[in-house]
UniProtKB/TrEMBL annotation:
Lineage: Bacteria, Bacillati, Actinomycetota, Actinomycetes, Mycobacteriales
Gene3D superfamilies, A to Z: 1.10.260.130, alpha/beta hydrolase
One Pfam short name: LIP
Protein's name in the database: Lipase
Gene Ontology molecular-function annotations: triacylglycerol lipase activity
Keywords linked to the UniProt accession: Signal
Source organism of this protein record: Nocardia stercoris
GO biological process terms, semicolon-separated: lipid catabolic process
InterPro entries to which the protein is assigned, alphabetical: AB_hydrolase_fold, Lipase_secreted
Superkingdom as given in the UniProt entry: Bacteria
SUPFAM superfamilies with a match to the protein in the record: alpha/beta-Hydrolases
Signal sequence residues: 1-30
Length: 404
């Protein structure tokens, strides 16, 4: 139970902890604190990465079986994507191939919530972990899809630098991952009905992928997107966590580190940490969610920073808004299923309702459900059955409902 509650608080840290960006300058000597390179050379970008188009397959390799998914084939696919500034990057997705599959069977891209900074914590690694704190908690649900002959893609949506908190980046990687899986003939899903899904941090990435698809990947034909508990306004999350000690501050700090990796000029937090902050930053730079929570437990912004004058810095606020779905003007071109609790203590619920309302006004078929529970993880459990039924209808070609 303690691990579960720690994870729940960690969801707030995915974004709410961006308050750590609020610091004044010490001498500009510190650089972003990146994760150590993955020891597996498969994850490295080739020298000619710029010659590939977004979504092009660079390489693939078979992976060991996953004990919790008996009979399922596992393939790691490396593909070309783009970072937040449009530069080419190499990204990866893990493809789960069911024991049997009929021609035209569906594809589901599932964005798991991985709140981490180290390469060993990625989805492609965590899928093998039975650790509830750092593994993929939704694995049992995957069997429901795999038993029906559905292929599942699990992108490493934090990117090669583990830019935790950079939500728009995650959306782009997700879309390019789908392109790659559909383009690779070994999977036979080139024309498969395709649905996006995810919860919490993974739901945030899913929402971004849905909203970006018309402009970023207009070649993709998606059947819908189902997501819940998605943080959709980072500025409001930052304000919500405040300056007092917070049980999720470890992930709060980690989100700031991750965003600096993607936006080193606009958000140079490493230049503005005190000695304790720099020490904890170094310890966190290769850590998974459990370690991040432990390292930040009982701390606050003022423990790690000299002061809070960057709270109103235009470049900081711009980075947060660039990664806030609530602030993105584009709308999805596919049906949406969204669920949350109006009493969720970890989310700015007004931002979710604004986004749903804006999409509805634009003519997007949106089904939104609210579960007045008051706890983030319990809301996920209550919403998943409805989401699974909605996904089943989309991949079966049933016209999408809307309760706008």
């Amino acid at each position: 139970m303690k691990k579960t509650r720690a994870w729940l608080y960690g969801i707030a840290g995915v974004l709410g902890g961006l308050a750590l960006t609020l610091h004044t300058a010490q001498p500009a000597i510190a650089q972003p604190c990146f994760a150590a390179a993955d020891p597996d050379p498969f994850f490295a970008a080739p020298g000619d990465i710029g010659d590939f188009a977004p979504g092009d397959v660079i390489d693939s390799k078979g992976m060991p079986p996953i004990p919790a998914l008996p009979g399922v084939g596992v393939t790691l696919v490396k593909f070309r994507s783009s970072d937040s500034h449009g530069n080419p990057i190499a990204a990866t997705t893990t493809v789960l191939t069911p024991p049997w599959r009929a021609p035209g069977s569906p594809l589901i891209s599932y964005q798991a919530f991985i709140n981490s900074l180290g390469s060993q914590c990625g989805v492609s690694k965590a899928i093998y972990s039975g650790d509830l704190a750092s593994g993929i908690r939704e694995v049992p649900m995957f069997n429901l899809w795999l038993d029906r002959g559905i292929t599942i893609a699990l992108p490493d949506h934090l990117g090669p630098t583990f830019a935790y908190g950079a939500a728009k980046l995650g959306g782009q990687i997700t879309l390019d991952g789908i392109r790659a899986v559909q383009r690779d003939p070994q999977f036979g899903v080139a024309n498969a009905p395709t649905v996006l899904a995810g919860y919490s941090g993974g739901g945030m990435t899913t929402g971004w992928a849905a909203a970006l698809q018309p402009s970023y990947a207009p070649d993709l034909h998606l059947a819908g997107a189902a997501f819940g508990g998605a943080p959709e306004n980072l500025v409001e999350m930052m304000s919500g966590i405040g300056y007092s000690a917070h049980p999720a501050f470890g992930l709060a700090f980690a989100a700031a580190i991750g965003l600096e990796r993607e936006y080193p000029t606009e958000l140079p937090i490493s230049e503005h940490l005190n000695a304790l902050g720099r020490d904890i930053e170094a310890q966190m730079s290769n850590s998974c969610v459990g370690q991040l929570l432990a390292l930040g437990a009982g701390h606050s912004v003022t423990d790690f920073a000299t002061d809070t004058t960057l709270a109103d810095d235009p470049s900081v606020l711009d980075v947060l808004n660039q990664n806030s779905l609530d602030q993105y003007p584009g709308t999805p071109a596919i049906p949406i299923f969204e669920w949350h609790s109006p009493n969720d203590p970890l989310l700015p619920v007004d931002a979710i309702e604004r986004t749903d309302g804006r999409w509805c006004a634009a003519g997007v078929p949106v089904t939104t459900l609210q579960f007045p529970i008051g706890e983030h993880l319990t809301t996920a459990v209550f919403g998943f059955p409805e989401a699974l039924a909605w996904i089943e209808s989309r991949i079966s070609g049933v016209p999408a409902p809307s309760n706008c």
